[in-house]
């Protein structure tokens, strides 16, 4: 009887420990979950309309967009320092552009740069703006 009670107590302890570990695992996974499919589809659909993508390009670009959005979420979660976060996002953007250059034709790539990257580059201002300089 004593052995049965000890065995039962050991099983309950192990099950409790496993349940606690699973809660921690689910909590970690909830933070780094993938972005919603609607967001990925909307971004890819917008790019497909403006760049006139064929079906193969659409499928490849959707996968790249999913990776990019997931990586952005992870970067925002991991890096609290704004300078490090911006550096990582900049690195990610250069990798994304390299992937786009593999998927898109040269004319589509040129259109991508004019349509989607014009907001990413800040405009240069004159040195005598606001009377300073």
TrEMBL record:
Residues 1-20 form the signal peptide. Keywords: Signal. It comes from the Bacteria. This is Periplasmic heavy metal sensor. The lineage of its organism: Bacteria, Pseudomonadati, Bacteroidota, Cytophagia, Cytophagales.
